[in-house]
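We give the entry.
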Amino acid sequence: EFRRVLFRSYLYAPEASQIASAMPSNGSIVKEGSDIIHLTSIDLEKDMLVAEKEREIAEWKVTASAFNSDLKNNLQSNTLSEKAILNNIELLKSAKKDLNSKAPFNGTYYELAPDLDQGDWLGKGAKLGVLVNNEKWSAEAYFPEEVMHRMRIGQYAKFFPETAGNEVMTLKINSIDPSPTKVIADQIFTSEKGGSVVAKIVGNKATTDKPYYKVTFAATEKPKKNNPIQRGHIVVYARPESVLSSLIRNTLVIYHRELSF
């Protein structure tokens, strides 16, 4: 559904963590790019220290192979081990960066957990707040769990409408639900209702055999036509596994008109 909406970005705790600084007050105006929430994770810090120590040992083994015959015989495996450790460090750095939330647009911040305060501990996936802007357009789609390792907030996408005459729109991933679901809240996404998510509908409940993540996209421009409904496909320019590639999924896109939280 392609309409003017109250565009929203939900803020989650990506890891089990602690609130490190005061959060915005309920109803406060937040500027794009400004810090909203800063979290810290003891487990993540410990994992980083261990990984850095492993990196030092791995680098020494590779370097020392030049004058140690035993290490030279294991040079290939030690080199592969070093690469795996370096890759793990990059993943940990990315996870640490995700603990700091910045406003993706100008908007109003609303609390979803009013009792939370600086110093409080959070479980992974805990909802913290929502940033709202009614001058933006948004879309939602469901993607299977097996492709989510290639998707990141900020990646660009294209919406291709099924109806001739409707325009192709440029999108950007704004948020990804922290955990997958097998229950599709809005049945319009299901194959029985014209979508592409294969689900079984019993009463008012739609369930799937495999888990899906809900991904929210922001439109980078306003559509020229204010059509009430648009169905189509989304092409996400995901992280390449080899050369430049696209992640294509035949999904239903729905643009929400109402804000709910």
